[in-house]
From TrEMBL:
Matches recorded under InterPro entries: TM2, TM2D1-3-like
Keywords noted in UniProt: Glycoprotein, Membrane, Signal, Transmembrane, Transmembrane helix
Domain annotation TM2: ranges: 189-236
Chain ranges passing through the membrane: 190-210, 222-244
Compartment list: Membrane
Signal peptide span: 1-16
Membrane topology designation: Multi-pass membrane protein
Record's protein name: TM2 domain-containing protein 3
Superkingdom of origin: Eukaryota
Length: 253
């Protein structure tokens, strides 16, 4: 009986020792897990803070500092009524009569600053101009491209397609750039030096006028002996300064 009791006591001690060893192992694992969990939140906010501060500039709206192309032609603080047409937008006056003066309500474009006669800044103003389209303007109010490929000596006289642009200080209706058919006026082969030499030597017989294709004036000089010399001297002066040119409107070469 005593031996059986001793065996039971030893078995109980072994079980208790095994339980304590397992308990110590479990407590070590739980402590390491708690340490890991507590350390993770400390690094997460730092990472999130870095990410937020890095991405913040991308959400800012970029401020536009680009200057419109028309600002090159627009003077600053000038009279609004004298601004070039590219610096303003005007309402069409449908009641205007063609060829008659008319008033148009206009407004300056963004970034354009102008004043009135009293030096007060204004945005809305009126301008006075003739009621007509741009392609109906006088030839002195627009500039056209020239053609160097067509000759004026052909019969009938040739035309060429030109692109014309209205001058900056001229106001008109419609497109300011338009196509137009113009007569060839580049050159007919006439030389200024030849015309001047003929005017000096044989001008009294109208040779210079005949050379330039002005046969009526040539006949007049021939039968009047150069206007008794006065017409001859005047023609030498006019041809010398380039005022008298070929009859077909071409240019000297």
């Amino acid at each position: 009986m005593a031996a059986l009791w001793v065996l039971r006591a030893l078995r109980g001690l072994c079980g208790a020792a095994l339980f304590l060893s397992q308990l110590s192992v479990l407590s070590g694992r739980v402590g390491s897990l708690m340490t890991t969990k507590l350390s993770q939140p400390q690094s997460t906010p730092a990472k999130g803070l870095t990410s937020t501060s890095t991405n913040t500039p991308y959400f800012k709206a970029a401020e536009s500092t680009e200057i419109p192309p028309y600002m090159i032609k627009c003077p600053s603080n000038g009279l609004c009524s004298r601004l070039p047409p590219d610096c303003m937008t005007c309402n069409t006056n449908y009641s205007c009569i063609y060829g008659k003066p008319a008033t148009f309500d206009c407004k300056v474009k963004p970034h354009v600053h102008c004043v009135d006669e009293n030096n007060h800044e204004q945005e809305n103003f009126t301008i006075n101009m003739t009621c007509q389209f741009c392609w109906q303007l006088a030839t002195s109010d627009y500039v056209c491209t020239n053609s160097t490929n067509c000759m004026t000596v052909s019969c009938p006289r040739q035309r060429y397609n030109a692109t014309c642009t209205v001058r900056d200080h001229i106001h008109c209706l419609g497109n300011r750039v338009f196509p137009k058919m113009l007569y060839c006026n580049w050159t007919g082969g006439y030389k200024w030096s030849t015309a001047l030499a003929l005017s000096i030597t044989l001008g009294g017989f109208g040779a210079d006028r005949f050379y330039l294709g002005q046969w009526r004036e040539g006949l007049g000089k021939l039968f009047s002996f150069g206007g008794l010399g006065i017409w001859t001297l005047i023609d030498v002066l006019l041809i010398g300064v380039g005022y008298v040119g070929p009859a077909d409107g071409s240019l000297y070469i």
